[in-house]
Amino acid sequence: MNVRFVLNGEEVEVACDPARRLLDVLREDFRLTGSKLGCGEGECGACTVVVDGRTALSCITAVGQIEGCRVTTIEGVSDTEIGRRLITAFGEGGAVQCGFCTPAMLLTAHNLLSRNPQPETCEIRDCISGNLCRCTGYNMIIESVARAAGGYPDKTFATEPEDE
CATH 1.10.150.120 region(s) of the chain? Predict the structure, then answer.
């Protein structure tokens, strides 16, 4: 079966079994390796992509389900304004350690900032809650997302920002 969809802004078509995992199609057919295979069960979030504006776990999404959809991977947002701000903030904020979860964290945060350019800390926490990180303890990630959004440049995330 031929499955047609928009991948990172470009119309694509792939001939394959519609039950094949989207993750495998992205990595093997399109050589987009930013999405990672972690658990393979939809629990860790390492395979996160955005489908029609919503995050999705590509390890449990059949490619046939995305017929006619818009799919965005980390490769599709890394060179956008928000993507560059996030990448810089993650690097400066120490939010990258082993790096395995980083593409999914960045993509998830990009999706949040695209919809809400000034999220509250609780919104950032909720946004990344589906992405597991074994290295950072999440505070550096949360702070980096907020910094990319232009918030809290001189504060850590032990507390919410003060009202002025």
Answer: 79-148
